[in-house]
Give the backbone structure.
Amino acid sequence: MVSGPSLDEQAYVREGATQTAVKILVVGHFAVGKTTFIGAISEIEPLTTEETMTRAAESIDDLKGVQGKTTTTVAMDFGRLTISDRIVLYLFGTPGQQRFVQMWEDMARGALGALVLVDPERLADSFAVIDLIEQYGLDYAIAVNHFDGSPLRDEKALRDALDLLDDTPVVTCDARDERSSAEALITLVRHLQDRAH
């Protein structure tokens, strides 16, 4: 079921502002917190396509480490964040399961970059996601979603484990927290601006 506001022009452009719309993907493996991230940061009511997980999904989706998960994104999430009078980010959250990867190509079209959410307890699940983003030629930043009770990871160890280039930004965030999530996105935008110069 798709929920969210009706799409009218006033909902997406602040009155009197000259803005540049920037399409950003929020990606990551299954159950890493993409829907939560967009919900925490979007200045409009986010569009979500969350559905209740069924018994049929139990044999497909690995729930190890996320046993309390009862819903999953089946198409995309969408939100908006105005970061200045000139720049508004349109956030497109991708589903994390392998069976939905075919839609990534369409969603990546026109995107300026991607924020890759990573669970430090399931780093290996991020390899395929990072490979896809690189395949689409998108610049990206890594946002390590710090879950309650999980130890903070050493950045060098994370970089080594994920085989990141030296200039790929790595930040820690809490996908439930608006300020923390905004800082992760701002880090990505600064990286994209640096790459453009």
